[in-house]
Amino acid sequence: MKLEQYLSEENIHLDLESADKSVFFQEALETLRKQGYVTETQRVQEDLEMREAIMSTGVGQGVAIPHALSEAVTKIHLSLWRLNKPLDFDSVDGQGVDLIFMILGPQQDSSDHVKILAGISRILHGEDFRSLVRAAGSSAEVMELLHQHHDS
Length: 152
Known about the structure:
This protein is α/β, with parallel strands linked by helices. The chain has one domain: Mannitol-specific EII, Chain A (3-Layer(aba) Sandwich). The protein is 42% helix and 23% strand. Strands 1, 2, 3, 4, 5 and 6 form a six-stranded mixed beta sheet that branches. Strand 2 (58-60) and strand 3 form a beta hairpin. Helix 1 (21-34) packs across helix 2. The longest helix is centred in the first third of the chain and has 14 residues, at 21-34.
């Protein structure tokens, strides 16, 4: 399973500022609404926050993988958000988060959702990929890194 099937340059957002997790969700979902992936931002935000209430998606080492299945999502979707300043995400290691992989999908599409989670976990296993994404100068560069790490 190649993450590139679900992630494109237009869905890699670099050097963002957000006040907190809730504001980040609002801003990110508004961007995704404009791109046609989300029909109701408030509903998807509620779905994301419900998932966060069960257990934080801050997986550690500055990374979070918020994910939700929602009736207000048109198709399975992966986006990457790099923040200039880490946010408190209630991460398992207590560190702030500056790399956010957001996975959204329609309510009935859980199999691809799980495959994407597994794919992200694989590429994040080593420090190398995280460091390179943090240093990348463009969305195209991040896509190239993704290709390289998937092929290695």
